[in-house]
Amino acid sequence: MKKLLIILITLFGVMSNSYGQNKQILYGFDEIPQTLLLNPGAVTNYKYHVGIPLMSNISANVGITGVTLADVFRNDGVDFTTKYRNALNKLSENDYIQVNSQIEVLNGGYKLNERDYITAGFYTEMDAFATIPKDILSLINEGNASNVNRSFLLSQASVKAEFIGVLHFGISRTLNKKLTVGTRLKIYSGAVNVTSTGNTGSFTTRLGQNNIYSHYLNNINISGNSSGIYDENNESNLSAGTLLGRTFFGGNLGLGVDIGFTYKLNDQTEITASLLDLGFISYSQDVRNGTMIGDFVFSGIEFQYDATNPDYWGDIDNEFRQQVPRAENKESYTVARPIKFNSSIKHSWGKSRREENCHDISYNDYFDNAIGAQIFSVIRPNGPKFALTGFLEKRLFESIKGKVTYTIDDFSYSNLGVGLSAKLGKVNVFGMVDNLFKITDIADANQASFQVGVNLIFK
Length: 459
What we know:
Blueprint: H1 2-15, E1 48-51, E2 58-64, H2 69-73, H3 80-90, E3 96-111, E4 116-131, H4 134-142, E5 151-153, E6 159-174, E7 179-196, E8 200-207, E9 213-227, H5 240-246, E10 253-264, E11 269-283, E12 287-299, H6 312-323, E13 326-329, E14 333-336, E15 340-351, H7 353-357, E16 367-380, E17 383-397, E18 400-409, E19 415-424, E20 427-433, E21 447-458
Antiparallel strand pairs: 1-3, 1-21, 2-3, 2-21, 3-4, 4-6, 5-8, 6-7, 7-9, 7-10, 8-9, 9-12, 10-11, 11-14, 11-15, 12-13, 15-16, 16-17, 17-18, 18-19, 19-20, 20-21
């Protein structure tokens, strides 16, 4: 049972896949139209673009702090119990799993005039975050007999996961030679949501009279909200067709906005910043919520049949329900989107011959090389998460540009990433991959991501 539980928890981390949406390779990669989704105030240098439907932007990220899959499941001759115990010892109360994936269905943009570039599109996104409840896993693994007087915190359990569709409209405006600003309106359609955050409570075992253990559940206040999982008959309702249908004005609607800017300190140096997903979703369809609030004390557990009290387990359950009452409702609830912040500084050099000789490039100066740094943050249920990235951009050939990044965050201090953008006539193809040092052994990586896309770009 214990082994099954840890497998299920680990599979949840893999299948629900969060990484925190830090797309540090794409951010500021101006040759790629999708950079406007990360900074609506990015500078554009083309007349219009059209994304290839369902192929213009596909990304997936997964991260887990503290341990890796290899720590628990690698076939290295060490028994599972030992590896599980060692993995628990490596964990802290701040470790977590986070996953994000996006599929862009439609995307396009058009340059209205010398100042304004408008964009619109639709994409689906799956985002999940879960803390790793070390105390609960330790209690399951070790039991309470060897942990008398130790309080196991139930508050370590926290989860927030959703699958949504996003319809968006944006505009980027060049105010002058130095400053470009932009904004994007988003209409969210929530297909599925599960949220359980801000829980409290602890479990403690103490030795009572006559060597009888007393068990205390203190300050229990656990709540959970869900939408799209159960229908009105409380039956699972998670078919692929139903979920995809809900992503486009499916009933659980919300609004959000992105803002951003690019400011040129001089011809070669610029700073950028953006705030993304300042918004919320109101869930009202197929809602099922639950709460447990109270305190409970009981002495010992009788595992053998007691002829004097044949309904021993039923009595404990009834007493627990009385002291820690559970309640369910179907009331609508609102969930804030995970707000994201990006900022960067970039210095470019090595003027491109293409700019000097090609008459159709007049919107922006071009350089063959650039170096810079970026900071990223996302708000999660247990606080903000940060990442710091250094990057180098270089034009490899006339139609191919590359970017190399080195990122430090909760997952790794040695995350090397690389991205390429190629222009073949009107076709723009890009690909990006993260954590190159672990690419041959993904099971031993704390984080991995990829991103690919195809667009048509018209100068």
